[in-house]
From TrEMBL:
Protein name listed in UniProt: DOC family protein
Organism: Karstenula rhodostoma CBS 690.94
MF annotations from Gene Ontology: kinase activity
Gene3D superfamilies linked: Fic/DOC protein, Fido domain
Organism lineage string: Eukaryota, Fungi, Dikarya, Ascomycota, Pezizomycotina
Classification via InterPro entries: Doc, Fido, Fido-like_dom_sf, Type_II_TA_Toxin
Amino acid sequence: MASNIPKFRFLTAAQVRRLHGTLIANAQPTQPALLESAVQSPLNIKYYNNEQNLFQLAASLPEKIMKNHAYQDGNKRTALVAADMFLKINGYKLQETPLQTGNVSQDLENAHVAVCTNAWTAEELGRFYEQSAKAIEEWTPEILAYRNEATEY
């Protein structure tokens, strides 16, 4: 019997550490358990809350990364690139190039700061993602590698 519940790909803590190391700084999390907790958040929300909206799941990841503060520095940037990769491995993108300058990047940065300062909820961030994200037209080798390593659920 086929299930109508969509399956999504979820990043692993190792993948988020790799994104941080590649795009932010060559540093390990000072609180690895808090990073693991943050990375598990979208999976838990899908399972326990039966959340089927990809963008709401995506928004829970950066919220937890920023608030858990697993890294000494770069948590907001890590949260942004992790959310973007989470959406990319599921067929959407927030930005062409991670951490680019420009309106989209500035709006994303502002949205993340709003969540960090409790001006926005993760749900509001999810709605922002849904309005901002674009379908991926070309699957790059990097996105495919992350997609293939991700957890499917």
